[in-house]
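Example record for the data management plan.
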Amino acid sequence: MHWDTGNIGFMLVSTSLVMLMTPGLAFFYGGLVGRKNVLAIMIQSFVSMGVTTILWVACGFSMCFSGSYGDAVNPDYWGLIGNFRHAFLMNMGPTTTFPVSPTLPLIVFVAYQMMFAQITPALITGAFTNRVRFKAYLIFLVAWLLFVYFPIAHMVWGGGILQKHGVLDFAGGIVVHCIAGFAALAAVFFVGKRRVQDKGPHSIPLVALGTGLLWFGWYGFNAGSELKVDPVTSQAFLNTDIAASFAAITWLAIAWNIEKKPKFVGLLTGSIAGLAAVTPAAGYVSTGTAVLIGILASLVCYYAIWFKNKAEWDDALDVWGVHGVGGLLGVLCLGLFAFKAINPDGGANGLIHGDPTFFLKEAGSVIGAALYAFLFTFVMLVIINKVTKVVVTKDEEEGGLDVGEHGEEAYV
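Corresponding structural encoding:
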């Protein structure tokens, strides 16, 4: 076998970049909460790295990427979840090839996709910050991966029913951002409002550090999702930065006009909204479309958060407004603006390029995934609450979860 060492190197770097996003998320969320809850929110991201890896090795990769819908030789289960051929990473070794890119070892793809699985449930944690017990979160983490992330990933990316019917999602608009955002909204409805409100971000520099790490890692997230180095890789890379930059400045302008001050946190939040929205479309659309996605992301997500505040939903760090709404918007934009000339081998034509069927597939898939993630998450939290209390007491919330749950303090 002739291995493409350049491509292997690129994918290992991309894997490292995506891994860096989870610590980046911890810094981003850690800066946004109050001083008494910094460690509690950060550990939820870091523990996802460990727990998800264990689960990924045991069954997660196999549930996502073993078998395919309609395959008589290696079938999955009804197009909804993979089989267990690769449980505990069986039936593979360092020289096993990755069928999609035969010059790439399969274990590289295993590592790359593992990093996506790590960050997705961690995204949800920003919604219920300051309110959830660590034990309950650990149960939530395992159950959510098994019953939400793994099935959706298989259906969209792993040879499942949606992929076989032509649904596209370049790097995770459906699989990562949308389902995490709508799961976060379900968690908000379940846990209720904070009884002790934070005064605001306790460390905006920490938020900026986290944003920088996320933005940097997103190049591996999006460009790496081509799974090889070619012109589409470059297109996805450039589209990522364009959407983030236009979104950041658009959010800054909106907030400056409405709030009368150019807010740094607004700029940073806008960039994340742009990154989330361009993710599903990065390798399928033109740079001009990436500009439009960035601008729309800030407009739509800003007013989604305004609506959330008006409705008094206590999504503490705006996970639904940024990731849920941003991911859904990005998938709809993909359905509208995808252009096969950008990606002749794996792309499609969206509605404005003559294929209304593709738009309907994308819209139906993202709405269905959002509803499933929302409903299952809410029911799952009800069940977990019968096993162990999910929400902390008022006294524990007042004292802060750093000391109450973990016996540590970020600042002394």
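Summary line stored alongside the record: The beta strands are 97-98, 101-105.
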